[in-house]
Amino acid sequence: MGVPSQSLEGVADHKLDTKYRVAVPAAWRPASGQSVQLRLLRWKHLKVPVLRAMTHEAFEALIESIATNGDVPTGIRNAQKQAVYGESTSVTLNDQGKLTVPKRTAEDFGFEAGGAVHLIGRGRAFDLVSPAHMEELREKEREILESLYDSVDFG
Question: Which residue, of 26, 36, 92, 146, has the greatest Cβ tally within 10 A?
């Protein structure tokens, strides 16, 4: 399938070109001559709007986790799944590492052609974050890390 076998990690600052394409870090790119289908999901991470690019396997795992959540009534679970499908679209990451963000989606999330976009690795996914939301997101993540430092012992 061409998806990098390693975890998608780190933060990268890039720009959208005039066709709303963004280049991802080399380590995240598929093998030469291959492309990868991803799901681009309108999402909120820590209540901050992001576009989450995820493999189809990661997307299906999300849908499965919704479907099997016994704490939520079946009708609500179905509505949640439908909403997630409705907020996502299939996109292609080509072998040059370019991902095209649909223009309207990009504009809805505060991205501009030729403007900055921040990429944050999330393991089996990565987030595209607008400059307007990046500092808020990073601050919330720093707060989470502060509480984690006290609870993890590498000893």
Answer: 36
